[in-house]
Specification:
Blueprint: E1 2-4, H1 13-19, E2 20-26, H2 29-43, H3 49-70, E3 78-86, E4 89-96, H4 103-106, H5 126-135, E5 137-144, E6 147-155
Antiparallel strand pairs: 1-2, 2-3, 3-4, 4-6, 5-6
Helix pairs in contact: 2-3, 3-5
Pfam family, one: HATPase_c_2
Keywords: Kinase, Serine/threonine-protein kinase, Transferase
Organism: Pseudothioclava arenosa
Length: about 160
């Protein structure tokens, strides 16, 4: 797994290092676990335990879905994860060169919709997307040049400076 550090605008390199996370890794379960562990560790001090759990859950659901479904029978594939922390929270993007994401995954049913499915009645794989839609904000997907790009935001409560 290769992790890269980037600098943001006029911020000092030390400040940028803590705010930006970028890595590319092979589409394999062990590589997902390593990337997930590194991403959560990078931002854990910026969030509450509940927020860290939500962040880990969303990323795990998305990354594991990519590995399990996007590459199907392919022997190789690369997943790229980028995360930027700003005053509104964490902006995350995941890209891969696997098969397109099925449209059903992107359909959101609002909490007050009488047709909203019960989590226990969802098909295999449907519960993960159900959670992602409920926990993430600004979820978006685009297929471009044979690559999938999925992005979302996780809002974070402001942390005290000396906490």
């Amino acid at each position: 797994m290769r992790a890269e550090r980037a600098q943001a605008g006029s911020a000092s390199p030390d400040a940028a290092e803590g705010r930006i996370f970028h890595t590319s890794f092979p589409a394999r379960p062990q590589a997902v676990r390593e990337a997930l562990r590194a991403a959560v560790a990078r931002f854990a001090r910026l969030m509450s335990a509940d927020e860290a759990g939500t962040f880990e859950l969303i990323l795990a659901e998305i990354l594991n879905n990519v590995v399990e479904h996007s590459y199907q029978d392919a022997d190789e594939g690369t997943v790229t994860l980028s995360i930027v922390q700003d005053r509104r929270g964490l902006s995350c993007s995941i890209s891969d060169d696997g098969v397109p994401l099925p449209e059903d995954c992107l359909r959101r049913v609002l909490p007050d919709d009488p047709g909203r499915p019960q989590p226990g009645n969802l098909p295999e794989g449907g519960f993960g997307w159900f959670l992602i839609h409920d926990l993430a904000e600004e979820l978006g997907y685009q297929r471009d040049a044979n690559r999938n790009l999925l992005a979302f935001r996780l809002p974070l409560c402001p942390q005290k400076e000396n906490a």
